[in-house]
Design a protein that fits this description.
Layout lengths: L1 E3 L4 E8 L2 E9 L11 H23 L9 E6 L3 H18 L3 E5 H7 L14 E6 L4 E8 L2 E7 L5 H11 L7 H8 L22 H17 L3 H31 L4 E5 L6 H9 L6 E3 L11 H12 L20
Parallel strand pairs: 1-4, 4-5, 6-9, 9-10
Antiparallel strand pairs: 1-2, 2-3, 6-7, 7-8
Bound molecules: 5'-O-[(R)-(carboxyoxy)(hydroxy)phosphoryl]adenosine (KG4) and zinc ion.
Zinc ion binds next to helix 3.
Length: about 325
């Protein structure tokens, strides 16, 4: 069983080897009115959700908890309160059932979601993964399941945060990424231009684009208060294209330098339809692109279960004394 509780989704999954039998996710509606995740409210919602979510995963997988062989859980990175709820529950369950406990790094798990059994094949090592989520934006060189090196990452906001903050300015509710995605389909991506961030190597910066959208909106709404309503779709499409272009340019540059052809996409923002389209288009430029199924892009426990399975095979079990970690960088094994 995998248990995920790093942010605002409570999730439990049951796997049999690399096959997912059930993956149940409870989203927390409570944050919508605040326009972002409130950590204390998230912890309380996890506490309410965790037992029903675990029960639902077991019944969907049609197994009893006594049949489980190990419990994997997200140790970090994430919000410490939510991590403690999932971690404590996982420790209790493993102790109660007398089965091994396996700690999992959430960012590593987003990448390992590619190894969930499917019919489309898996990337071969070494490959480069662009991990884009609400909390992180990283270009990762993946040498093996547990040997990963961060080649570059954001120096300020993550790509998901940029989507969410700009969406908020445009009047959408949290999380805004999916709204921008949907609205962009009716918009003209060439209508507005945003500056190219100047960041060295494979690092990113998304705070500049956020500020330039804010300036544009402030300036235009002075003369036309309906500017946002009249131009929402074009604003969305232009912002989305710029963010996608920034991400893909750096990914391709890294792949060329490291001479790596297998590329992967992971994390919540990899659910973005334009990013998926441009990424899959890299197939025509000599690369072999892999994207996870939609349900394994945003936070889910299936990715924790598959990571747990891979660690289980290596006999890597964890002590119940391990502390949850708000900051937890991926690195070589
Ligand atoms: O990986 P994830 O579920 O949670 C974290 O680990 O942070 O990522 C959540 C992020 C949010 O910023 C959300 O707006 C973004 O993923 N997201 C999207 C889309 N679906 C989710 N961003 C753009 N387009 C989407 N379709
Ligand atoms: Zn995540």
């Amino acid at each position: 069983m995998g248990i995920e509780s790093s942010c605002d989704d409570t999730s439990a999954a049951v796997s049999s080897n690399d096959k997912i039998l059930a993956n149940v996710v409870a989203n927390q509606e409570v944050h919508r009115i605040w326009g972002g995740v409130v950590p204390e409210l998230a912890s309380r919602a996890h506490q309410q959700n965790i037992v029903p979510v675990v029960d639902a995963a077991l019944s969907k997988a049609k197994i009893r908890k006594e049949q489980l062989h190990a419990i994997a859980y997200t140790r970090g990175p994430g919000l410490i309160g939510p991590l403690l709820v999932g971690g404590s529950f996982a420790k209790g369950l493993s102790a109660g059932l007398g089965i091994p406990l396996i700690e999992v790094n959430h960012m590593q798990a987003h990448i390992l979601a590619h190894f969930i059994q499917n019919n489309k094949g898996v990337p071969s090592f070494p490959f480069i993964c662009l991990t884009v989520s609400g909390g992180h934006t990283q270009i990762v060189l993946v040498r093996s399941h547990f040997e990963m090196e961060i080649l570059g990452e954001t120096t300020d906001d993550s790509a998901g945060e940029a989507f969410d903050k700009i969406a908020k300015m445009l009047g959408f509710s949290y999380p805004g990424g999916p709204h921008i995605d949907k609205s962009s389909k009716q918009g003209n991506p060439f209508r507005f231009q945003f500056p190219e961030p100047k960041v060295s190597g494979y690092n990113f910066s998304f705070s500049g684009i956020k500020t330039s959208v804010l300036y544009l909106l402030n300036q235009q709404t002075k003369s036309n208060p309906a500017f946002i309503a009249e131009n929402r779709a074009d604003l969305c499409a232009s912002v989305q294209d710029k963010i996608v272009q920034i991400l893909i340019n750096k990914l391709v540059a890294a792949a060329r330098e490291y001479k790596i052809s297998h590329l992967a996409l992971a994390g919540g923002v990899s659910a973005n339809s334009r990013l998926r389209e441009v990424f899959m288009g890299l197939g025509k430029e000599g690369f072999i692109p892999f994207v996870p199924e939609f349900q394994y892009c945003t936070d889910n426990a299936a990715m924790i279960a598959i990571s747990g399975f891979l660690k289980y095979k290596r006999g890597e079990f964890s002590d119940t004394g391990l502390a949850s970690l708000a900051r937890y960088r991926i690195g070589p094994a």
